[in-house]
Amino acid sequence: MLNTSQIKKDFPLFTHHPDLVYLDSAATALKTQGVIDAERAYLEEYSTNVMRGLYPLAETATEKFEMTREKMATFIGAKSSSEIIFTSGTTDALNLVSKLLASQIEKGDTLVTTAMEHHSNFLPWKELAKTKSADLHIVSLTKEGMIDRESLKKSIDEHTKIASFSAVSNVLGTINPVKEIIALIRSINPKTLIVIDAAQAVCHMPMSVSDWDADFVAFSGHKMFGPTGTGILYGKYSLLETLPPVNFGGGMVLDSCAEDTLYKESPYCFEAGTPNIGGMIALGSAIDYIENIGLQNIHLHETTLASYAIEKLKETFGEDISIIGPSKKEKRSGIIAFTLANVHPHDIAGILGEQNICVRAGEHCTTPLHHSLRLSATTRLSLSIYNNENDIDKFISVLKEIQAMFLNK
Ligand SMILES: Cc1ncc(COP(=O)(O)O)c(C=O)c1O
Fold it and tell me: Phi, psi (5° rounding) for residue 219?
């Protein structure tokens, strides 16, 4: 296990709230001192624009900004930094890729997604299908909350243009075998463009976009200890170089006149306007931090702690608790969503909050999944490198008090 008392010192939020039990890292991860320092340094010392100024301060900003792109390419196993498009988050990245691919969709084509998706990886495809009179196929899940291979096979055929699914579910905690699923889709229709929502995978386990052979991968910087308003769309360069830009403005143009415009190459032609410069520079510091700890160590820490939490929850609440998602621990990430008999998730989260314990309750932006589970809400804890068994014990002890409170009503 990681040395969490040492790690907590790297996150200044714990200096301000020493007793806080933060179990909501799937919503957003806390920020390291290094990330905060990097953003502050940009704002205080060289807050100039990038790609424009020819004076030394602007060159420094551009250099550091581009350094994050280089680091990110290596971090996710991309072949080159030209495959890394800066966005404001996963949502922005998925909307961008749906717009980039829109011109390729015609009436009668099929778009495929799954029943476990976050709204961000469902609505852009649903809207695209609607606008183009294309069909949207939703792959169903097994009882255990895994992608059902048979349903997937039935959904893919010669009409399938795009298939998009998440690497890790933000509610079920399911770790999808991304490489295998991509290979399965390609074995049925090699032309299908495959998009991966890696929002809940990126800083929790080793991953390589090249090894997956994904066409596009989206994720958020703020879920990997970076600032909010930062995100990435990875795209294979061989595809990006064929796609025309969909957002227009400054910073993306080589030459323009009334008749014609010559756009820059990827990724710059997809990044119109002034980006989140300080945020992206600080995201570079988050990458350094994660690499220093090691993704394999992070994965082991979070999954071991998740198994501890699940065992304790079952031991304490028996049949009153229902934990959704896979029962096999090797199929699960550090995300645990559950229902507790006779207590509404909002009551649980509200009362835990009063005791300095942060969890999330509701549908977690996955209404289709909650509908299919016939649940109006769940309570979710999501683990990170700063969590330890003490956090879980405190959470369970307050949850027990909450249960008693409602039983006595
Ligand atoms: C699986 C998944 N996809 C997409 C998103 C959207 O991320 P963002 O709000 O950072 O754009 C989230 C956020 O929780 C998520 O968990």
Answer: -160, 170
Cis amide prior to 267 (ω within 30 degrees): yes
Ligand 1 atom at shortest distance from the alpha carbon of 120? 4
Tell me which residue has its CA closest to atom 15 in ligand 1.
Answer: 199
CA of 218 to the centre of ligand 1 (A): 9
pLDDT at 288: 98
Mean pLDDT confidence for 72-82: 98
pLDDT (tens digit per residue) in 352-362: 999 999 999 99
Q: Is domain 4-23+294-407 annotated with CATH 2.40.50.140?
A: no
Percent of the chain residues topping a pLDDT of 90: 95
The residues, ordered by sequence, that sit 6+ positions from 352 with a Cβ below 8 Å of its Cβ are: 358, 359, 395, 398, 399, 402
- Identical fold, 4-23+294-407 and 35-291: no
- Pinpoint the alpha helices (H) of 256-382: 277-293, 295-317, 345-354, 367-372
CA distance 376 to 396: 22
Cα separation, 358 vs 323, in Å, equals: 18
Give residue 53's pLDDT: 76
Q: CB–CB of 293/34 below 8 Å?
A: no
What token pair was written down for 348?
């649980």
pLDDT digits (tens, 9 = 90+) for 88-114: 999 999 999 999 999 999 999 999 999
> Cα–Cα distance between 94 and 198 in angstroms, integer?
11
Residues in contact with 220: Cβ distance below 8 Å, sequence separation at least 6, in sequence order: 89, 90, 199, 202, 230, 231
Among this protein's residues, is 269 annotated catalytic? no
CATH code that applies to domain 35-291: 3.40.640.10
Domain map (residue ranges) of the chain: 4-23+294-407, 35-291
Q: How many CA atoms lie within 13 A of 252 on its CB side?
A: 21
Which residue of 220, 367, 384 sits with most ligand 1 atoms within 8 Å of its CB, as the best mutation to test the pocket?
220
- Ligand 1 centre to CA of 125 (Å) is 15
**Cβ atoms 216, 235 nearer than 8 A:** yes
